[in-house]
Amino acid sequence: QQNNIIVLEDTIKRLRSIILETEKAQNKSPSRLDSFVKTLEADRDYYKSEAQNLRKMIRSRSKSPRRRSPSSRGTNCDVELLKTTRDREELKCMLEKYERHLAEIQGNVKVLTSERDKTFLLYEQAQEEIARLRREMMKNCKSPKSTTAHAILRRVETERDVAFTDLRRMTTERDSLRERLKIAQETAFNEKAHLEQRIEELECTVHNLDDERMEQMSNMTLMKETITTVEKEMKSLARKAMDTESELGRQKAENNSLRLLYENTEKDLSDTQRHLAKKKYELQLTQEKIMCLDEKIGEFFSH
Where is the composition biased (Basic residues) (predicted)? Predict the structure, then answer.
């Protein structure tokens, strides 16, 4: 019976040592799980504000004017694509950080559950040991050592009750922290789902911007080809204009030459006409003289 009491005292000591270690840990670092919950809540608020800012930014981009010049539209499309890609990567980093927090919290929950199970196991062992000692004392209540054993048993029961009170207090604190942890975990899961949705929306936006950028590049290529074709046509027209101008100069030179030839011909014709008129006058005078001579000859032969 004395050995049983010693075993029971050892069990109570182990139970009290576990409770004291837990209390020391709480005094050194007031609720490590509580600090994790506060950190998670702060991160949740930060990510929520970032998601709201990102939502406002995307909404403002969707309301911005879409008609721009081809070059400015291509540049703005590239800038917007880079910004959206950077926002998507930041959201992915936030999501990974959330997942690490959740894994760490789940690990802490497992540790708390293990410590709780260990404490309850020791408490049940102590309860069984006390019940067994009580049964033995009821059998040996007339023995000389029963009074001492009964006093020891009462002391052990008192210590057990104190340990049980501390255990219930710790269990209450643990349940409160687990409830807060559950709420924070649900919030984290909701924020994770929201972030995943935002990432999908951003990836869709990136895809649309990439398509728009490719369309702008295709339009730029077509415009460059059109400009090249127009430049070739302008060069061809310039060469034709130069050839036409050269031909026009040659035609002008020929016209000037023909004009000079015409003027010379007109001058020669005028001179020839004057000379011909003079010759006609001389011929008329000669004919008149011949007629006079013929008349004189006729008169001469008539006498």
Answer: 56-70
With CA atoms as reference, report the closest residue to 20 among 91, 119, 94: 119
**Long-range CB contact pairs, 130-139, < 8 A, 24+:** 130/8, 130/156, 130/157, 130/160, 132/4, 133/1, 133/4, 133/5, 133/8, 136/1, 136/4, 137/1
Radius of gyration over every alpha carbon of the chain, rounded to an integer in angstroms:
61
Between 65 and 99, the more confident residue is 99
pLDDT per residue over 233-258, tens digit each? 999 998 998 999 999 999 999 989 99
246 falls within a domain = no
Using CA atoms, how far apart are residues 258 and 266, in angstroms rounded to an integer? Answer: 12
- Residue range 14-50, pLDDT digits in tens: 656 655 665 555 454 444 555 555 665 666 666 666 6
Helix axes 70-139, 2-28, angle to 10 degrees: 160
C-alpha 192/C-alpha 91 separation (Å) is 10
The answer to whether position 275 is within a domain reads no
Q: Where are the alpha helices (DSSP H) in the chain?
A: 2-28, 32-63, 70-139, 146-302
Show the domain range for 74. 2-239
Count of domains for the chain: 1
- At residue 75 the predicted structure's pLDDT band, cuts being 50, 70 and 90, is low
Q: HEC states along 135-192?
A: HHHHHCCCCCCHHHHHHHHHHHHHHHHHHHHHHHHHHHHHHHHHHHHHHHHHHHHHHH
Instruction: Give which of 42, 41, 44, 40 is closest to 194, Cα–Cα.
Output: 44
Question: What pTM was estimated for this model as a whole?
Answer: 0.36
User: 3-class DSSP state for residue 31?
Assistant: coil
Q: Is residue 53 part of a domain?
A: yes
Q: Flag whether 142 is in a domain.
A: yes
56-65 pLDDT, tens digit per residue, is 665 665 555 4
